[in-house]
Predict the structure.
Amino acid sequence: MKKSTNGHGRKRDRQWMTAHAVELHRKYPGKWVAIVDQHVAGVGTSATTAYRQAKRRYPDDEPILEAIEKELIAIYVVL
């Protein structure tokens, strides 16, 4: 099945990454992740590794790459 590579798919992937930030940090601290179709399609110690894994799995899609920080930083806003 061919997955969407349009801007709407990438926007959904970014929203998915934001919604799953804590989970991604827990599973992949200090790693790079490649997201395709709202799931982790590649992981590595470099962006290149994560990208290549994702492209092997989804050659027709362009993954979104994100570095996952080793430490989770929370920012609180008090209104």
In short: Strands lie at 32-36, 39-44, 64-67.
